[in-house]
Design brief:
Elements: H1 5-16, E1 30-31, H2 39-46, E2 53-61, E3 64-71, H3 78-85, E4 90-92, H4 95-102, E5 119-123, E6 132-135, E7 141-145, H5 147-154, E8 157-159
Length: 162
């Protein structure tokens, strides 16, 4: 099966980072039978808790992309986060802004595999799960990992985002 270019970019990044899943095996992007555009849909497809889904949300932070990896059980408090980061504005990015900075569509944005590094915050709530799942570049692609691996492979910072 021919993988979508976004999925290949994510897998290549994971391979280069030597990313590991919760069991210590190399991470493999998995293709689900159907697209999962929401954390709830992904959790149902994987038969896991919605909190184990690492939602990749791109925000427009004063015209610069900010990737927030948040637990699927949370909503990002943009006002609180903007104040903590010293930003004048933090708003949900348009689909065009997301694609321009990640090369990926909303609903499939992965934590990695972007054309250029994106500043990343990782929700501390994900740390309570031994395994979390993230999108793999398109809405039907996902991969298992851990909170510590998300921090490492993204170069992200731990943050309270909800």
């Amino acid at each position: 099966m021919q993988l979508h270019a976004n999925v290949r970019a994510v897998q290549e990044t994971l391979d280069q980072a030597r990313a590991l899943d919760g069991s210590g095996r190399p991470v493999q992007v998995r293709i689900l039978p159907d697209a999962v555009h929401t954390a709830a849909a992904a959790a149902a497809a994987l038969d896991i808790e919605v909190g184990q889904i690492a939602n990749s949300l791109i925000f427009d932070a004063d015209d610069t992309p900010l990737l927030v990896l948040t637990s699927g059980a949370h909503r990002v408090d943009t006002s609180r986060l903007a104040a903590a980061l010293g930003l004048t504005a933090l708003r949900r990015a348009s689909p065009e802004f997301v694609r321009r900075h990640t090369g990926q569509p909303i609903g499939g944005v992965a934590p990695v595999g972007h054309p250029a590094p994106v500043r990343t915050l990782v929700d501390i709530a994900l740390d309570k799960y031994p395994e979390v799942w993230a999108a793999g570049g398109v809405p039907q692609a996902v991969f298992p990992t851990t909170y510590a691996e998300l921090l490492r492979i993204t170069g992200g910072s731990a943050a309270e985002v909800a």
